[in-house]
Amino acid sequence: MRVLVIDPDPARAALVAEGLGDFKPLEVRTVASLAEVEKDLDRLAPDVIVIACDSPDRDTLESLREATEQNPRPVVMFADRSAPGLAQAAVEAGVAAYVVDGLQPGRVRSVLEVAMSRFQLMQQLRADLKKAKADLASRKVIEKAKGLLMKERGIEEEAAYAILRKLAMDTGRPIAAVAADLVAFAGVLKGGPA
Length: 194
Known about the structure:
GO terms for molecular function: RNA binding. InterPro entries: ANTAR, CheY-like_superfamily, Sig_transdc_resp-reg_antiterm, Sig_transdc_resp-reg_receiver, WH-like_DNA-bd_sf. The chain is an alpha/beta fold. About 60% of the residues lie in helices and about 15% in strands. The longest helix is centred in the middle third of the chain and has 49 residues.
């Protein structure tokens, strides 16, 4: 497991590394700030990021959000203290586990395991939501294309769907793509946007 520890305090960073001792194989890289590795995060490819700090500030959270936006990964934050609203801001920035005044080597492993599991669950939920939205959009465009065919040709729904399916098979494209083309073309014919 590759772990990136971000902490300006070497003694506190050592506590994190000590708590990771059980993981095998283990590669720990420690830096003082996110700015040191922000541009190299993809190259370093840590399995998990651990941030330990006195108290997170909004700039750090925004930098974290930007750094992990394109390539999300589990983030654990240990803070010595917190202010109202920071836990919510941390979660919104992509932190999977936010622990205040609880950095003890014996707890690090279990916190990391929970954070990694929670991160995987959230990633799966996001993927499922994205797929559901895409499926819904596909169904909507297929329904619209069927409606156009039914109106223009005076045919039943099953016949309209059969036409779309045949076009999709003949062109080797998904039925939703064929339906989207038909809807767009119909819009052009009616004087809509090109």
